[in-house]
Amino acid sequence: MPGYLSEDPNHPKRVDDVLAAHVLALAEDRLRVVLDCGDYATPDLTLVPEWRTLLDTPGMGAAGAAGYATMRDGRRICYAHADQSEREAIAAAGGRGERFTAYVSGDGRAITTWTGGVLARVTEHGSSRSGFYDSMIHYWTATTPDGRVWFGRNGGTGMAITLRPRKPRA
Predict the structure, then answer these.
(1) Residue 151 within a domain
(2) Is residue 48 part of a domain?
(3) Residue 70 sits in the same domain as residue 112
(4) CA-CA distance, 144 to 149, in Å (whole number)?
């Protein structure tokens, strides 16, 4: 289907709708504010009629999301800069041997920021029963681009995880 982002006829995502979402979002005064990083905030899907059909469309924001990240010092930055900041933070935490909290992606292949920016690639995954009402606990090992190996456990994909850097083998 030309002009569509999805081949699913029940949920077509037209390119025109995505472009309209961006135009409508930028027309909103609250989103036209330039962030501290120099970029605009990510558009809020709820500004577009039939916004539910645009969920999971690349380049679109989450429904009702602010469209920016607020840093500890109060600066507001775009999601791309926030992801880069988190990549720098995990590298620094690993160098100091500190824990780092992130998310396991929905498909379980990556450790990500809250916006979905990849921080590390999952290299091992296992699970077992936790004994608490037959719930599962998942064990993860992941490697960051600098080669540092991290491990942690959580409730599964799409969930937060606290990672610890693995000590280098002698």
Answers:
(1) yes
(2) yes
(3) no
(4) 7
